[in-house]
Amino acid sequence: MFGIIGGTGLASIHELKVLKRELIRTPYGEPSQPLIFGSLSNKNIVFLARHGSGHTIPPHEINYRANIWALQSVGVTKIISVATVGVIDEAVKPGAICIPSQIIDYTYGRKNTYFDGAEMPVKHIDFTYPYDESLRKQIITSAQALLKTVVTEGVYAAVQGPRLETAAEINRLEKDGANIVGMTGMPEAALAKELNIAYAAICPMVNHAAGRGQSKDAISFSSINELCDNDVCQHMMIDVIRLIQTIVSKN
Ligand code: HPA
């Protein structure tokens, strides 16, 4: 069964026929909200809003371990994560989606593994390709059929937040090889891999990163949530929902 993790701008899916809501308790605490079980394109799925239903949980305080654990505990084997990002390349206009292929993790102080504590074995998962390639391909195929522009690969820089970056930090991320920047991609992807869940992301590119393009002088919103209070972002989310419906219907 598919699990969908919605980020900023996607706190719920109106097209979802909700069957029940259930608060799951995990050994790691509670997930961001009760899981929402429902039917989308006639398929059963589970939805979870990463920042909680009222968008109250900032990226560094999300209980990523509880979220992924809860989804697996109810039978989720594949996760599509939706996570807005800033785009680093000035030549790329915000307004399209990117399906990232790689990650560089700059986060710190987050609980980033299930393999800790005295009772757990030492385990190092392979993370060469952080996203599930088959799920990534499914997303790309459907996205190319539905949308005008799709960026089919990219290196996602996962930053700590909640503040946005300095222009120099963005220059450094670019030198490191990153194309997009966001605050929630890790440790989510690694935790899914630890639990053998196929995981891939859809990243709406909602703004130019700090010091670039339209964000040359400043990024003109105080919360990333505010970013989605505009037509461009809202249209992107409509596209993202259509895309998710198509992918889910084919499974
Ligand atoms: N930086 C970090 N996270 C983000 C951004 C950004 O510019 N846009 C959306 N999430």
Automatic annotation (TrEMBL):
<keyword id="KW-0660">Purine salvage</keyword>
<keyword id="KW-0328">Glycosyltransferase</keyword>
<comment type="subunit">
    <text>Homohexamer. Dimer of a homotrimer.</text>
</comment>
<dbReference type="GO" id="GO:0006166">
    <property type="term" value="P:purine ribonucleoside salvage"/>
</dbReference>
<feature type="domain" description="Nucleoside phosphorylase">
    <location>
        <begin position="2"/>
        <end position="214"/>
    </location>
</feature>
<dbReference type="InterPro" id="IPR035994">
    <property type="entry name" value="Nucleoside_phosphorylase_sf"/>
</dbReference>
<feature type="binding site">
    <location>
        <position position="184"/>
    </location>
    <ligand>
        <name>phosphate</name>
    </ligand>
</feature>
<keyword id="KW-0808">Transferase</keyword>
<feature type="binding site">
    <location>
        <begin position="207"/>
        <end position="209"/>
    </location>
    <ligand>
        <name>substrate</name>
    </ligand>
</feature>
<comment type="pathway">
    <text>Purine metabolism; purine nucleoside salvage.</text>
</comment>
<dbReference type="GO" id="GO:0019509">
    <property type="term" value="P:L-methionine salvage from methylthioadenosine"/>
</dbReference>
<dbReference type="GO" id="GO:0017061">
    <property type="term" value="F:S-methyl-5-thioadenosine phosphorylase activity"/>
</dbReference>
<dbReference type="InterPro" id="IPR000845">
    <property type="entry name" value="Nucleoside_phosphorylase_d"/>
</dbReference>
<feature type="binding site">
    <location>
        <position position="183"/>
    </location>
    <ligand>
        <name>substrate</name>
    </ligand>
</feature>
<dbReference type="GO" id="GO:0005829">
    <property type="term" value="C:cytosol"/>
</dbReference>
<comment type="function">
    <text>Purine nucleoside phosphorylase which is highly specific for 6-oxopurine nucleosides. Cleaves guanosine or inosine to respective bases and sugar-1-phosphate molecules. Involved in purine salvage.</text>
</comment>
<dbReference type="InterPro" id="IPR010044">
    <property type="entry name" value="MTAP"/>
</dbReference>
<feature type="site" description="Important for substrate specificity">
    <location>
        <position position="221"/>
    </location>
</feature>
<feature type="binding site">
    <location>
        <position position="8"/>
    </location>
    <ligand>
        <name>phosphate</name>
    </ligand>
</feature>
<protein>
    <recommendedName>
        <fullName>Probable 6-oxopurine nucleoside phosphorylase</fullName>
        <ecNumber>2.4.2.1</ecNumber>
    </recommendedName>
</protein>
<dbReference type="Pfam" id="PF01048">
    <property type="entry name" value="PNP_UDP_1"/>
</dbReference>
<feature type="binding site">
    <location>
        <begin position="50"/>
        <end position="51"/>
    </location>
    <ligand>
        <name>phosphate</name>
    </ligand>
</feature>
<comment type="similarity">
    <text>Belongs to the PNP/MTAP phosphorylase family. MTAP subfamily.</text>
</comment>
<feature type="site" description="Important for substrate specificity">
    <location>
        <position position="165"/>
    </location>
</feature>
